[in-house]
């Protein structure tokens, strides 16, 4: 029974040191980081001729099943739909359907039955969206424990859905000290498992380029990957929300309120969320971990005692050795 008791003690020690301390980091006070960032979009310096792009109507390559539309080389100022400051998101337009509308003839906007009539529709793609670059200037902080850090002071990387690091192409930057992170849209799509914007949208015959999609880019801050809590790093990961599309209708009035153009924008809704796990050494947390270990020692002692006194064939002998009967005789 002594061997069983020592086995339990060794198991508890391995559990405390191997799992609680080494694996689960139960010697630190941890928190999920919060943060914010500044994002901007930049068009590539060199654009691809529309004749080489299979989604443009002037494509001169082999026939494909893609729906083709005219391609218009808008820059980042047209492509990026401004988001609210602090929204941690951006909308990158991939397709615009332009509708020219006039008020009904002999009609006034002050009349209840007056409405706009669509005169014409024109759909266009914005080419080379995959080569547009996203600049991210981010920071993190925690309240308890108290800590804060700038992203450009940390090392980082971007990983795919399999957890493996994605190699960067020329012009991309991630985790370089004193430099902002710069990622191509194609790299973010790859991290989310999207092979091409021309693949079918979720349960739809139209492409992701036509319908749009919602991407969540996670900025994972952590210092829990090594025993050096002073080494804070981050990595980008991305997920695509299946079945979620995004569109925005932008109304442009020209000379008067009687005439207007409605831009029905579809594209990539990119939502950036800071997350992760930051921890700092905390004596109270260590104390709680070891006190719970002492509780396990008491439980193991009680289990061994029950086995020795009530289960094994030699239980009577163990009871005799454990329990000593005494009698008190008067002098």
Automatic annotation (TrEMBL):
One Pfam family per UniProt: P2X_receptor
Keywords, alphabetical: Ion channel, Ion transport, Ligand-gated ion channel, Membrane, Transmembrane, Transmembrane helix, Transport, Vacuole
TM annotation in the entry: 6-28, 286-312
GO molecular function terms listed in the Swiss-Prot or TrEMBL record: ATP-gated ion channel activity; intracellularly ATP-gated calcium channel activity
A GO cellular component entry from the record: contractile vacuolar membrane
Superkingdom to which the source organism belongs: Eukaryota
Localization terms from the record: Contractile vacuole membrane
Gene Ontology biological process terms, A to Z: cellular hypotonic response; regulation of calcium-mediated signaling
Family per similarity comment: Belongs to the P2X receptor family.
Protein name: Purinergic receptor
Organism: Arcella intermedia
Upper lineage: Eukaryota, Amoebozoa, Tubulinea, Elardia, Arcellinida
């Amino acid at each position: 029974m002594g061997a069983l008791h020592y086995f339990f003690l060794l198991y508890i020690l391995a559990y405390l040191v191997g799992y609680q301390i080494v694996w689960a980091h139960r010697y630190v006070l941890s928190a999920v980081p919060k943060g914010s960032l500044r994002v901007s979009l930049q068009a590539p310096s060199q654009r691809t001729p529309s004749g080489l792009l299979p989604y443009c109507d002037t494509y001169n390559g082999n026939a494909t099943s893609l729906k083709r539309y005219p391609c218009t080389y808008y820059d980042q100022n047209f492509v990026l739909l401004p988001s609210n400051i602090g929204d941690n998101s951006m909308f990158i337009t991939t397709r615009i359907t332009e509708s020219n509308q006039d008020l009904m003839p002999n009609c006034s906007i002050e009349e209840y039955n007056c409405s706009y009539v669509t005169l014409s529709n024109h759909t266009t793609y914005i080419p080379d969206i995959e080569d547009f670059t996203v600049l991210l200037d981010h920071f993190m902080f925690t309240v308890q424990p108290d800590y804060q850090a700038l992203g450009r002071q940390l090392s980082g990387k971007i990983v795919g859905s399999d957890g493996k690091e994605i190699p960067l192409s020329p012009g991309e930057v991630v985790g370089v000290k004193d430099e902002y992170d710069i990622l191509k849209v194609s790299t973010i799509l790859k991290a989310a498992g999207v092979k091409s914007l021309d693949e079918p949208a979720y349960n739809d015959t139209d492409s992701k380029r036509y319908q749009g999609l919602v991407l969540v880019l996670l900025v994972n801050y952590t210092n829990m990957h090594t025993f050096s809590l002073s080494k804070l790093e981050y990595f980008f990961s991305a997920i695509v929300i299946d079945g979620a599309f995004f569109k925005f209708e932008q109304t442009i009035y020209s000379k008067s309120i009687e005439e207007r153009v409605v831009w029905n924008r579809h594209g990539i809704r990119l939502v950036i969320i800071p997350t992760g796990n930051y921890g700092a050494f905390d004596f109270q947390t260590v104390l709680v971990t070891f006190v719970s270990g002492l509780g396990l020692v008491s439980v193991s002692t009680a289990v061994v005692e029950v086995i020795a006194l009530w289960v094994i064939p030699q239980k009577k002998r163990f009871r005799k050795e454990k329990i000593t009967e005494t009698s008190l005789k008067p002098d």
